[in-house]
Amino acid sequence: MRRFFLSLVLSIFCLPALSESLLTIEEGWVREGPPTAKVLAGFMVMKNSGDEPVELTHAESDDFESVEMHRTVIEDGVASMIKQDSFIVPAKGELVLEPGSYHLMLIGAKRSFKAGDTIDISLSGKGDDCMKLSLTVKKGGNDDMADHDHHHHHH
Predict the structure, then answer these.
(1) What are the pLDDT digits (tens) for 113-151?
(2) Phi/psi at 9 (nearest 5 deg)?
(3) How many Å apart are CA 23 and CA 11, to the nearest integer?
(4) How would you write 82-106 as a 3-class SS string?
(5) Spatial CA neighbour of 132 closest among 66, 65, 60
(6) Burial of 59 (0-12, 13-18, 19+ CB in 10 A)
(7) Who's near 87: CB < 8 A, 6+ residues apart?
(8) Separation CA 28–CA 30 (nearest Å)
């Protein structure tokens, strides 16, 4: 019971251990959706300058009912999103979250978002490490979004 309570407290207050590590987040953004959109996707570049891989196992946001880690895989011209148990940022390397690849699924929006808004996300790793970041909502996202038709994907 004590371990559960400790984990709950840590998830609420988000210890800054990941942000003090050698993991950095760059180019964080979310593509603006229609005002009634309940699901959005988050993208960024995660860089690890450390000598050990960093494994992220959980993501959450007060603005969404849940946040899941996904990867898009295209087979026979059909894009499928596959839920991931974790994201691993390799030692001395990076993991790019981008349209058509790894991304955060922001599910159950509690309000509408427009270009210029920010969405706060907490990423957690092994051992109760946590990092807070803000993703900027952008109209149309980046140029790569035009190459991906999200009307033909499934989970």
Answers:
(1) 999 999 999 998 876 678 899 999 999 744 443 333 343
(2) -60, -45
(3) 19
(4) EECCCEEECCCEEEEECCCCEEEEE
(5) 60
(6) buried
(7) 46, 55, 56, 69, 95, 97, 102
(8) 7
Tokens matching residue 101: 């690849």
CB 59 within 8 A of CB 124: yes
Please name the residues in contact with 83: beta carbons below 8 A apart, sequence gap of 6 or more: 68, 69, 70, 155
* pLDDT at 18 exceeding the cut of 60: no
Number of helical (H) and strand (E) elements in the chain, helices listed first: 2, 11
Report pLDDT digits (tens) over 25-46.
999 999 999 989 999 999 999 9
Give yes or no for a contact between 16 and 131, defined as CB atoms under 8 angstroms apart. Answer: yes
The pair of structure tokens assigned to 71 is: 């990867």
> Hey, what are 68's tokens?
């899941």
The 8-class DSSP code of residue 16 comes to T
The answer to whether the CB of 120 falls within 8 A of the CB of 133 is yes
**What is the three-class DSSP state of 59?**
strand
pLDDT averaged over the chain?
A: 81
